[in-house]
Each structure stands twice: as structure tokens, then as C-alpha cells.
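Board work, copied verbatim: Competence protein ComEA
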Amino acid sequence: MEYRQLYKKHKRAVQYGICAVFLIITGLIYLAGRKNASVSENTFADNVVSSSIEDSWHMESESSVEDIYVYICGHVNSPGVVKCLKGTRLYEAVAMAGGADDLADMSAVNLAALVADGERIYIPAYGEDISVIEEQTEGIVNINKATESELMTLPGIGSSRAADIVRYRTDNGRFQTIEDIMKVSGIKEAAFNKIKNYICV
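↓ predict structure ↓
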């Protein structure tokens, strides 16, 4: 009996209390939902950013992969043109050329240096003066880089033959050895013998 009287007496206060509790519970549910949604959005954004960074890294890695050709000569076991990746160090290129022979003075060259496409690198013997060797090779025409005018400085090479060399190089890629120049129409062994001491790759 007392509960009913108390309820009647405080009916409005009880109703307000119930409404307040309902609103509090509703508010808590709403805030919890917002928090979960925010976490999901942040996770999605993080995934998108991470994916973009990873894709960019892969694209950069792929673009940095490039084949180059370097002429390693002098005191190595298999002198010649070696194919390697851009960013290769000299010690790696020397290994691709069969490694240094017993006479090679490896302290005379920078083994940690990066090699460049089309570069000619001479590995000297003990006691050899690299500066003298470089002077001796001045005037040598690189048939992979030379212009038509530069090719015309070679014995027996006129304007039409120089144009043929450049055209062949453009259509078929770089020459791997100096002997490959005989693949150009009109350059046979006799013509090659005239220029072989004046060309390199």
C-alpha cells in the first residue's frame, strides 16, 4: 500500500527518471557506434595509405631495374662486354669478366665504384701507369656511341657507311664486340681489319 501511495505521490518524478535512464542508454549506444565507425574509417584510410606507399615502392623498384653493358678489359680472365644491372659495382663487373688474373693490380682501381652503361674499364697489371694507357686509347671510336661524323674519321668509312652503322645500331641494339660491326652491310673482314685498332664498344 505504501509503494502505491509513494508512486502516486512521486509519479511524475519516476517517469522523468525512467526517461532520463532511457536517454542515457541511447546516448551510450550511439557513442559506441560512432567510435566503431571511426575506427573502421581510420583502418580503411590506413590501409589505403599503406597500399599506395607499397605500390609506389614497387613502381620505383621496377623502374630502377635496367640492364647496362660495360667493357671490362686488361688483366681479367675473360675480357669483353658484360651485361649487368644498373647500380652494379666494379668488383661485381670484374667477377662477371672471369675475375682478375694473377698480374692484376686491383689496388689501382676503385672496386666500389658504380659502373656506367657503355663504359670501358681497364684493369692494369702491377707497375702499369693507367694514365699512359688512357692516353694510348684516346682517339678510339666507340661504335656504340659515335655519331656519323665521328665514325667517318675511321679508315675507309664514308658518309653512307657511317649512316649504315648508326642505322644498324638503332634497329638491332648496341654492338657487343668490335667484330659485330661486320654484321653491318658492306663491312667485311678486309674493312674490319682497317678499323679494328681504332674502335671499341
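Strands lie at 67-74, 80-85, 120-123, 141-142, 199-200.
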